[in-house]
């Protein structure tokens, strides 16, 4: 009995070779001199007139660029560390740079792995050991258990209204409070995520990722469930039971809930739902108890 080895199909603009040239026939070898080994390997080699850009075989004129030691594909742009310039890779290895400045409502930094000018954001966090940090930086122990309104848009009639309810429980005697479930509401869409990261939308259990009504999406990355609507609102719920609510600066001063009003003043964050000043975060949380949810 004998068997034959069948070559795996090669991608577009390439073909199988017993001794493939995988070094000299690359974009990198044309942009900068390379020391290629004399040995070769069985595999796919780009057709005549094409070279590998590291992902696929492209015409030589479509090769990317090397900028500050980094290889860029055609159309890829990079921003320097202080967002003062943006450089774009053009065809034939040309790099075009232009001055850049962030607008007053933007901040320079990394977001989702991309450096650039991004809309300013505020974060409210509910930590695994039962502490809450408001949008403006006030923090303290949650204390009570049950469901509470962490954040919502005060104007319930607004088209972009949303509400985040966090259910905190003490699972065993002497343990710290931890998040048992997160509920996020966007007008006609209600999303529930429990501590096992099982997810329901409008009462229907779903598999992730899921996209609802265009702008609303739910997905999981690095053991964290991420619920977001466009770029203005993002709620994350990690495997360690950390909940983070992220909102854009456009919502400053328009927020209600235990996370505060996001007016860049932490001094007024320790205020109960009926407007009374306190020094205890747990009192604030208790005042924002979600009446439409069971306390026990």
From TrEMBL:
Q: What is its main location?
A: secreted
Please provide the record's keywords in A-Z order: Disulfide bond, Secreted, Signal
Q: Where in the cell is it found?
A: Secreted
Residues of the VWFD domain: 122-296
**InterPro entries xrefs:** Kielin_Chordin-BMP_Reg (IPR052424), Ser_inhib-like_sf (IPR036084), TIL_dom (IPR002919), TILa_dom (IPR025615), VWF_dom (IPR001007), VWF_type-D (IPR001846)
For whether the record's keyword set contains Signal, the answer is: yes
Signal peptide location in the record?
Answer: none
Q: Which superkingdom is the protein from?
A: Eukaryota
* Cellular component, GO annotation: extracellular region
Q: Where are the transmembrane segments?
A: none
Give yes or no: UniProt keyword Signal: yes
Q: Which GO terms describe its biological process?
A: positive regulation of BMP signaling pathway
Q: What is this protein called?
A: IgGFc-binding protein
User: Where does this protein come from, organism-wise?
Assistant: Liparis tanakae (Tanaka's snailfish)
